[in-house]
Amino acid sequence: MVLLDNESFLAELGALFQKSRASGSVYITMKQYYGQTKPQPKNTDKHSISEASDHKCLIRGTDGKKKISTVISNRDITKFQMAYANLMKANMDGLKKRDKRSSRKTKTTKAT
């Protein structure tokens, strides 16, 4: 897994979208990041995370072959979210439309 800075992560994510445009999927996950890279042993006391610490978000993207990730701090989230939203809007045009006939059939069978 490659840890990138925010701008290069968005550029690589755009490249993943372009590569999987004809066929394939891109998976994106987000979770809170505490800065911990190794698990803590079970026999030690667990330290509580202070409320004053800098909250971060870990975002990962993969197409099944290539994995990329970035860590975003709370002061950079607005700038990143605007760029991320524009990237998602630009690359969400290949989605399949829902089949309306199958939904009509289920409604009529439930009514009778």
Kindly describe this structure.
This protein is α+β, with helices and mostly antiparallel strands. It is 37% helix and 21% strand. It has a four-stranded mixed beta sheet with strand order 1-4-3-2, with helices on one face. The protein is extended. It starts with a strand and ends with a helix. The model has no long low-confidence stretch (mean pLDDT 83).
Q: Briefly, what is this?
A:
By secondary structure, the protein is α+β, with helices and mostly antiparallel strands. It is built from three helices and four strands; from the N terminus they run E-H-E-E-E-H-H. A hairpin with a 4-residue loop joins strand 3 (56-62) and strand 4.
Question: How does the helix and strand content classify structurally?
Answer: alpha+beta
- So what's the overall shape? extended
Rounded to the nearest angstrom, the radius of gyration is: 20 Å
Which consecutive residue ranges, at least 5 long each, have pLDDT under 50? none
Largest sheet: 4 strands, mixed
Let me know the number of strands.
4
For the residues shown, what is the average pLDDT? 83
- Spatially, the strands of the biggest sheet line up as 1-4-3-2
Count the helices. How many? 3
Q: Helicity, in percent?
A: 25-40%
Strand content: 15-25%
The helix/strand order is EHEEEHH
